[in-house]
Amino acid sequence: MHIITEPLLEEGLRILQTVGEVKVLEHPSQEVLVKEIVDADAIVVKFAKVTRECIEASKRLKIIAKHGVGVDNIDVETATQRGIWVTNVPSVNADSVAEFTVGLILAVARKIPEGVEQIKAGEWRRESLLGMELKGKCLGIVGFGNIGQRVARKISGFEMRVIAYDPYVSEEKFLQYGVELVDLNTLLKEADIITLHLPLNRETRGLIGEKELRIVKSSAFLINAARSEIVEKYALLSALKEKRLAGAAIDVFDNEPPSPDDPLLKLPNVIGTPHIAAMTREVQEKIVKTVCDDVVRVLNGQVPLNPVNWVET
Ligand SMILES: NC(=O)C1=CN([C@@H]2O[C@H](COP(=O)(O)OP(=O)(O)OC[C@H]3O[C@@H](n4cnc5c(N)ncnc54)[C@H](O)[C@@H]3O)[C@@H](O)[C@H]2O)C=CC1
Ligand SMILES: O=C(O)CCC(=O)C(=O)O
Fold first, then answer.
1. Residue range 118-152, pLDDT digits in tens
2. Residue limits of the D-isomer specific 2-hydroxyacid dehydrogenase catalytic domain (predicted)?
3. Which of 8, 92, 114, 225 has minimal CB crowding within 10 Å?
């Protein structure tokens, strides 16, 4: 039996049904997931948390397949210890996320959502919507992997200076994209727009905190379409309230969906979107096939094509 924790395109169900019965749980609580995972051979997961408790409750689990890139909602360490494959779908959504990031940059720098709100409310207060031109400004990309590199490529027509920080990518890669490699402090100091494209893990949780937000220009904007917890929420709130940061565009929240009372969403200089950077028809159709194909491979005794862990034999 395989479990799916959120609704899946029909094509995915069809592929999974070739190797067994499929049970769709719609956004299960931890309690339900711990119970349902006991007899599952495979689990396909979008946002549900596959914790140590879940993994330890499972008796037959062979693969936890992430419908996306970031595996921060899966306890990969415990899965690895127990010989369970964890897979993801790298790079397939990178172009859509990069396109969306460019959209967020334009939206926040040019106050597009506020303009839309004004005109729908029958208002015409153009002077309150003075934006920032991108030409000649500096874009700072933190995390220069699949998405970060595509953001650099897609923004090139805007004639910005592009700098990036990523301690794990070779210098040649930055040269190839015409991007300056800098350290994090330099990036925070010099960027007019800072955009995050790195995974959430022990090293990156809270990477952008009080100290870092005190370095940024007060005219700068922060874009977060990576993971919320990379930025310390209360440090960000203070920076925005005290106008030490001009604005932020955020696609990811610590509790999704966020409460309508989330203090970040109450701020006029914050744009929020409901985790939709990868939500294009093209991406969703490709992801579902890749994620389910790896489930089939593992249940047929083969090695998956997109493992994020390894299993000692
Ligand atoms: N909002 C959304 O819908 C989506 C969000 N994401 C998030 O974006 C993240 C990045 O995705 P990809 O670019 O596809 O992943 P990727 O693995 O291709 O690139 C991530 C880059 O971050 C770098 N990195 C790791 N630790 C770092 C650190 N401490 N400082 C600076 N750089 C660091 C890595 O070296 C790598 O080059 C994902 O992990 C996921 O959390 C991904 C897809 C959709
Ligand atoms: O759109 C989705 O399903 C999740 C995208 C995401 O956050 C990821 O790929 O890590």
1. 999 999 999 999 999 999 999 999 999 999 999 99
2. 3-309
3. 114
225 lines ligand 2 (CB under 6 A): no
Closest CA to 114 of 131, 97, 135: 131
Burial class, 206, CB count within 10 angstroms (exposed 0-12 / middle 13-18 / buried 19+) = middle
Indicate if 2 belongs to the active site.
no
Q: Which ligand 2 atom minimizes the distance to the CA of 46?
A: 3
Rounded CA separation 117/111 (Å): 10
Decide if 256 is catalytic.
yes
CA–centroid distance, residue 143 to ligand 1 (Å): 6
Question: Is any atom of ligand 2 closer than 6 Å to the C-beta of 70?
Answer: yes
CATH class for the region spanning 2-92+281-299: alpha beta
Query: 232: part of which helix (H) or strand (E)?
Result: none
Contact between residue 138 and residue 191 where contact means Cβ atoms under 8 Å apart: yes
CATH fold match for the domains 2-92+281-299 and 94-272: yes
**Res 311: pLDDT:** 63
Domain residue spans of the chain: 2-92+281-299, 94-272
**pLDDT value at 244 more than 60:** yes
B/e letters for 40-78, b = 16+ CB within 10 Å, e = fewer, are bbbbbbbebebbeebbebbeebbbbbbbbbbbbbbbbeb
pTM score, whole prediction: 0.97
Q: Does domain 94-272 have CATH number 3.40.50.300?
A: no
Q: How far apart are CA 297 and CA 293, in angstroms?
A: 6
Question: Of 45, 36, 26, 145, which Cα lies nearest the Cα of 85?
Answer: 45
